Amino acid sequence: MTLQTVLLVAAALFSVGLYGALSQQVVVMVMMGLELMLNGLILAAAGFWWFLAPDPSGQVLLLVIIVAMTVEMAMGFAVATHLHRVRRVDMTDMAADLNG
Amino acid sequence: MITHISFWALAVVAVLAGAAVFYVNSMARASYALAVSFIAVGVQVLLLQQNYVGVVTILMMVMEMAVMAVYMVMFMGMNPALMPMSMVHDKRHALAAAVGSFVLLAAGAVLIPWPARRGRPPAGVTVALGEELMGPKMLVMGVVGAVMAATIVAGVVLAAHRTRYDRFGDDLRRRPAKDPQPGGVGR
């Protein structure tokens, strides 16, 4: 287990998440993709902390990433609820009002 | 040695379970696959001696996936464990972006001459984190608290069935309010 191997695994998780976030149509599945990307970020940050500078400040950064994930989840569920109530849809393609 | 074997086994589980999220043909299975991926990463974080963050990651994500499963049952109007589905768009570009990002990130991970470790981990990692958050990094804790509170308010406003705009109109000037049940003072 080295920093490089940890980062490789994190990169794989991030890339799989990116594929999901870009390709999925259902809002909940898009959120799953975003969470996989953040999953990779958590692992990468933990690797940086352990292999480069294992002081408590790095752990605080990890905690901030976890909070970002929580906020993403909560707001995603709220937006999906609103979308479903207003339009009875759960697909991103049917909520493209702000698209380019 | 055991740590290395465990790390690689968990890495394989994490990535395969992550890929399974977008491969399995029902959303319930996808949410369980994501939970497995998060648990594997949480244990990897534990292997990197960050006990608190690892445990928080595992607990939080297991609960989140449970919420997600309930959510799908509510809004998809079906039994998501039994209903096959494949709802994707622009699969080719998404795949290209994913492969490109992996090549870029992997090249950076392998080719960058990372510096040597600076300092040693504290004896009590969790205690040190707590003291850091309640001491020099109190501002982070304060900001995180405010962001979480704002998230709660925004989430409730978005998810609420009726708001003041439904009652008083877009300009908030409609009187009397449009309520399902008439009543109230002066009406």
UniProtKB/TrEMBL annotation, chain A:
The chain crosses the membrane at residues 33-53, 60-83. The gene is nuoK. One of its GO terms (cellular component) is plasma membrane. It is a multi-pass membrane protein. One of its GO terms (molecular function) is quinone binding. This is NADH-quinone oxidoreductase subunit K. One of its GO terms (biological process) is ATP synthesis coupled electron transport. It comes from Micromonospora sicca. The keyword Transport applies. NDH-1 is composed of 14 different subunits. Subunits NuoA, H, J, K, L, M, N constitute the membrane sector of the complex. It catalyses: a quinone + NADH + 5 H(+)(in) = a quinol + NAD(+) + 4 H(+)(out).
Automatic annotation (TrEMBL), chain B:
It is a multi-pass membrane protein. The chain crosses the membrane at residues 6-24, 31-47, 53-73, 94-114, 138-160. It comes from the Bacteria. Coiled coil: none annotated. It is found in: Cell membrane. One of its GO terms (molecular function) is NADH dehydrogenase (ubiquinone) activity. InterPro entries: NADH_UbQ/plastoQ_OxRdtase_su6 (IPR001457), Nuo/plastoQ_OxRdtase_6_NuoJ (IPR042106). Its EC number is 7.1.1.-. It catalyses: a quinone + NADH + 5 H(+)(in) = a quinol + NAD(+) + 4 H(+)(out). Keywords: Cell membrane, Membrane, NAD, Quinone, Transmembrane, Transmembrane helix, Ubiquinone. GO terms for cellular component: plasma membrane. It is an enzyme of class 7 (translocase). Belongs to the complex I subunit 6 family. NDH-1 shuttles electrons from NADH, via FMN and iron-sulfur (Fe-S) centers, to quinones in the respiratory chain. Couples the redox reaction to proton translocation (for every two electrons transferred, four hydrogen ions are translocated across the cytoplasmic membrane), and thus conserves the redox energy in a proton gradient. This is NADH-quinone oxidoreductase subunit J. It comes from Micromonospora sicca.
